[in-house]
Amino acid sequence: MENRRNFIKKTVLGGMAMLAGARAWSNEVPDVVVKDVKALAYQKGSDRALYVRIEASNGTIGWGECSPNGIGVIQTLVKDLLAPLVTGASPFDTEKLWEEMFWTNHDLGAGGALTYAIAGVDNALWDLKGKLLGVPVYALIGGKLRDRVPAYGGFGINGGKVPIAKATQRAVGLAEHGFKIVKLRAQIRENNLNPADDPTIEYYKAIRKALPSEVTLFVDPNEGYTAFRAIEVGRALADLGMPYFEAPCPNEAMSDTRQAVEALDIPVLTGEKCYNRWMFRELIEKANPDMINPDFSKSGGITEGLKICHLAQVHHKMIVPHNTKPMLASAATIQILASIPNCGPMVEYIETSLYPGICSIFDQGIEFSDGEMLLPKGDGLGLVINEKRAKQLFGY
Ligand SMILES: [Mg+2]
């Protein structure tokens, strides 16, 4: 019931806001529903993306990104399974919609393809919520603790099949591009577990020598080692100055990761292949890594991502996101990092020049400056897509 004091307060505050030219806030959630959900795929070689475009009944549009691995499969999941659940609903009911999208379909696999698909829809809903309210996402999920995070660039050596001179050139190129942290992806597992001719240390030494001393270099063997080899290589690299060690052992061998965590004097980070809060709970309980690296375009989007970050906080873990997409996925990532108290020392990022097609539809994209990813200024996820160019690129 409206009492007299509330009425006077609202009237006075409303009048003051209008005098100041500010938004006159109502205490009602905007009365809109989701009118249309599109899953839009673009692929030209490695320049590829799967975007979700959600239009509200008042014409406001939100955009989100799914990881595009298996692009056609994920597109179909969004189109056939998720879009019907979201269409007609309030875009503000992200928690309810996440539960429906996940539990209605989770017998298809509770992590992986399904959470990739949910991530794009959920991130688009958060973008839409912010745009409808005229505020950035970080303001809706906890406010701002920071507006920039050091970013690292990465390159792969395919188990030693990429010539060392070429790998070195690529690493130096990343440093020249402005990255102050660079990651060598050894891609051991793709070739063999614990290979006898392991190239990691030789490449590390050559690339370390070629990089400016102020640039940090660390290694991700891409889950290529059993416990003893992870410890052996991790110690050798730590002696060469490596400050972090990513994913030394597979997700399927968490006790091996735990042995590496306990034996090494440098932090171990892992978790890019965990796709929901329960997978991260198991990882943390069994492997106990110092830092975890969820990918918010794979692990269910911002709604689930916040739960993962909070779970990590309870267990005293830092968040160092996996993020290999230059625009919408990066935007969702930096909005989360802006608002959580356990943001780690860095976030993954990739050069926009590798994605000329997809980046061409943005009037305002992610900014990378002085080796850092910047929190965009703008409503929702903070990016601006040019609708005309998006229509041409995706053909809708
Ligand atoms: Mg990795």
Q: Which features would summarize this protein structure in a list?
A:
TIM Barrel; alpha/beta; four-stranded parallel sheet; six-stranded mixed sheet; binds magnesium ion; 396 residues
What global shape is seen?
globular
CATH architectural label of the largest domain: Alpha-Beta Barrel
CATH class of the largest domain: Alpha Beta
Bound molecules: magnesium ion
SSE class: alpha/beta
- Radius of gyration (CA) equals 22 Å
Number of domains: 2
Tally of helical runs? 14
What is the strand tally? 15
The fraction of residues assigned to DSSP E strands is: 15-25%
Distance between the termini: 48 Å
Report the sheet with the most strands, covering strand number, pairing sense and barrel closure: 6 strands, mixed
The name CATH uses for the topology of the largest domain is TIM Barrel
CATH superfamily of the largest domain: Enolase-like C-terminal domain
- Helix/strand order: HEEEHHHHEHEHEHEHEHEHEHEHEEEEH
Helix content: 40-55%
Rounded mean pLDDT is: 94
- Which regions are unreliable across 5 or more consecutive residues at pLDDT < 50? 11-21
Q: How would the blueprint of this fold be written?
A:
Layout: H1 4-19, E1 34-44, E2 47-56, E3 61-66, H2 71-86, H3 94-105, H4 113-133, H5 137-140, E4 148-156, H6 164-177, E5 181-185, H7 200-210, E6 216-220, H8 227-239, E7 245-246, H9 254-263, E8 268-270, H10 277-287, E9 291-292, H11 301-314, E10 318-319, H12 328-339, E11 347-348, H13 356-359, E12 362-364, E13 368-369, E14 372-374, E15 384-385, H14 387-394
Parallel strand pairs: 4-5, 4-11, 5-6, 7-8, 8-9, 9-10
Antiparallel strand pairs: 1-2, 2-3, 4-14, 12-15, 13-14
The protein binds magnesium ion.
Magnesium ion binds at residues 220, 222, 246-247, 272.
